[in-house]
Amino acid sequence: MRSIAILFILSAITLFALACNGTRMYTTNNSQPSGSPAASLPSATPDELASARINFQKHCAVCHGEKAEGGMKEVEGKKFKVPSLREGHALKHTDDKFMNQITGGDEEMPAFKDKLSQDEIRDLVRFIRKEFQGK
Fold first, then answer.
1. What is the mean pLDDT of each run of 10 residues along the chain (135 residues)?
2. Pick from 124, 135, 134: nearest CA to 59
3. Cβ distance 98 to 120 under 8 Å?
């Protein structure tokens, strides 16, 4: 009986020592050492609006500006005031209104229905909302 008690106490001490041991070795498929800075960096998230960003640069920035600030512009010899996409009425437009404007154009704004698909226009609206309006 005494030997069972001693065995029990030794087992408890061994388990306690193992549980408190601060140096553990883990086997992973990671090629970086666990303490390296590269191991703690999050993986890159793909830019889901990358193509919309490209379309904005290609089709919109010439008039609205790189930062969508609008203002007086001259395109093909014609001067006109381009609205900001960051403030004013652009903040109040619904997504459908934006899509309709981009698709069909209005006043000086050209129509893009023949240059962009509806999905590309929808992504462009999402890009404008996120990038320039913080929505």
1. 62 58 54 54 76 95 93 87 92 93 91 96 95 90
2. 124
3. no
pTM of this structure: 0.64
**SS3 track for the chain:** CHHHHHHHHHHHHHHHHHHHCCCCCCCCCCCCCCCCHHHHCCCCCCCCCHHHHHHHHHHHHHHHCCCCCCEEEEECCEEEEECCCCCCHHHHCCHHHHHHHHHHCECCECCCCCCCCHHHHHHHHHHHHHHHHCC
Which two structure tokens, joined as six digits, stand for 84? Answer: 């900001």
The 10 Å Cβ neighbour count of residue 22 is 4
Both tokens of residue 50?
A: 């990358």
